[in-house]
Design brief:
Layout: E1 2-6, H1 18-32, E2 36-42, E3 51-61, E4 64-75, E5 78-84, H2 100-115, H3 117-120, E6 133-138, H4 144-153, E7 163-168, E8 176-177, H5 192-195, E9 196-199, E10 203-207, H6 208-215, E11 218-221, H7 224-229, H8 240-245, E12 250-252, H9 283-298, E13 308-312, H10 321-331, E14 337-342, H11 346-358, E15 363-367, H12 371-380, E16 383-386, H13 396-402, E17 406-410, H14 413-418, E18 432-434, H15 439-455, H16 457-468, H17 474-490
Parallel strand pairs: 1-2, 1-6, 2-5, 6-7, 7-11, 11-12, 13-14, 13-16, 14-15, 16-17, 17-18
Antiparallel strand pairs: 3-4, 4-5, 8-10, 9-10
């Protein structure tokens, strides 16, 4: 098939979280399966790899004609097409920044331009065309694309065999606004019912995700557990009714990881400063060196027997950082070291700095984000803590297991799907889970984890090895995406 992924971010050029990683990796796995694959994303900066195609098109947004240029690169079997207009420039660090209306106008322009890419942009000298074509849109930012595909084209006999799949990475962000926002998306008035959603608190409002879910031919979300949660009033964030109505086209597929970037055997961030690459065969010695190098780099006491606990993520309520804060008095009574990396809410950033100041021999709070340090913490830590209140899929626990780092997670969404609890009797499982967002439950799970680390070294090594020997690659997920694309094509 001809497959076009459309997303507001794509690693390595732009990324705010897991979505950027997915869009940078899934297309390559689909290409390995023999499909012709393209990624369409905004051009936020001057990317060295991308060449100007010379194609120019004009689209009307809020009464103004905006010209877009198309830049293209071919990397690892995938065409990357970047849509260029001044509204996107210099936003790679603030992709979703600006006023509600500014963001909406950018997404209208982006989706209008993206849906016509297969007609206008020659890749390798040949346009994709609209035969045997499927779009994969991602989150609310591109949820207009299935609507435009239907309203502008299929309803008028154009692109009638083209299909759309909408992927839910995080339902909490929906593209909401007052009903009058509908008049900015430039659709015939009878389409307003697709967007109009009733909220018990605010009444009728405009909702882009609601429209995309109704218009898409298939809907995917990033884990089986999250697919179930989306159907509940708590997990669906007001869209559960629409999701239940469209349950027949919903499927959960767990994300994979890029085994080139996130592989302890080849990780470029482990090639200096005392770190070392390691594999399953050299796990014990290699991980010990990375742990010592991490302790030294962060100015913590270098001690191979002290368990290092890592946290990597946004500092906000979703990620459960406050639960870690509540557990600090207990943690500081243990012989452990805690390393936290992230940025987010100012009060939680202050909390990290305060913990480091109060417990300088045991805690390091790295406020900000560093790709290199994320890799080094993943390699050097013994335990990764993920107490997220909700987590559609989660990638850090997958990275951790690939590096022989044992996860302790709140059993929600993709965390529940991917972290099978340790069973000491059958010596199975890959980590620890706790079943409610409660610091006491976190302490219980982490306490059992630390006890196993100290007292049952053989069991601990089994946990590490089982984590590392799983197939966490994108190839398995790509096969399941292929099944969804075929279903959209032939079971319409």
């Amino acid at each position: 098939m001809n497959v076009i992924l459309v997303a507001a971010e794509c690693a390595p050029w732009s990324k705010t979280g897991g979505l950027g990683d997915v869009v940078g990796s899934l297309p390559k796995a689909l290409a390995r399966r023999g499909h012709r694959v393209m990624v369409v994303t905004p051009r936020y900066g001057n990317y060295a790899e991308a060449q100007d195609t010379g194609v120019r098109k004009t689209y009307r947004v809020n009464g103004h004609d905006l010209e877009v240029k198309y830049f293209q690169a071919f990397i690892d079997g995938v065409d990357f097409v970047f849509i260029d207009n001044p509204v996107f420039h210099h936003l790679e660090r603030n992709i979703y920044g600006g006023s509600r209306l500014d963001i909406l106008k950018r997404m209208v322009l982006f989706c209008k331009a993206a849906v016509e890419v297969p007609w206008h942009v020659p890749c390798g000298g040949v346009c994709y065309g609209d035969g045997n074509l499927a779009f994969i849109a991602n989150d609310w930012h591109t949820a207009l694309l299935p609507v435009y595909l239907k309203a502008y084209y299929r309803d008028h006999g154009l692109m009638k065999y083209t299909r759309s799949v909408l992927v839910i990475h995080n339902i909490a962000h929906q593209g909401r606004g007052p009903v009058d926002d509908f008049f900015l998306v430039d659709l015939p008035e009878h389409h307003i019912d697709l967007f109009k959603l009733y909220d018990p608190i605010g009444g009728d409002h405009f909702n882009i995700f609601a429209a995309g879910l109704k218009a898409a031919d298939r809907v995917v979300t990033v884990s089986h557990g999250y697919a179930w949660e989306l159907k509940t009033s708590e997990g669906g964030w007001g869209l559960h009714g629409i999701i239940n109505d469209n349950d027949w086209k919903l499927r959960g597929i767990v994300n994979g990881i890029d085994n080139k970037d996130w592989n302890p055997e080849f990780d470029v961030h482990l090639k200096s400063d005392g770190y070392t690459n390691y594999s399953l065969e050299t796990l014990s010695s290699g991980k010990a060196k990375c742990k010592a190098a991490l302790q030294k780099e962060l100015g913590l006491p270098v001690d191979k027997d002290v368990p290092v606990i890592g946290f990597i993520g946004r500092l906000d309520q979703q990620k459960g950082v406050d639960l870690i804060g509540e557990a600090i008095p207990w943690l500081m009574g243990q012989d452990v070291q805690l390393v936290m990396l992230g940025t987010g809410r100012p009060d939680l950033e202050r909390m990290l700095r305060q913990f480091e100041s109060q417990h300088h021999d045991k805690i390091r709070g790295w406020v900000g984000f560093s790709v290199k340090m994320a890799h080094r913490i993943t390699a050097g830590a013994d335990i990764l803590l993920m107490p997220s209140r909700f987590e559609p899929c989660g990638l850090n626990q997958l990275y951790a297991m690939n590096y022989g780092t044992v996860p302790v997670v709140h059993a929600v969404g993709g965390l529940r799907d991917t972290v099978k609890p340790f069973d000491p009797f059958s010596e199975s499982g890959v980590g620890w889970t706790f079943n409610s967002a409660d610091s006491g439950k976190l302490v219980d799970a982490l306490g059992n984890c630390l006890w196993t680390y100290r007292e049952y070294k053989k069991s601990w090594e089994g946990l590490q090895r089982r984590g590392m020997t799983q197939d966490l690659s994108w190839d398995n997920a790509a096969q399941q995406y292929e099944e969804v694309l075929l279903a959209a094509k032939y079971q319409w």
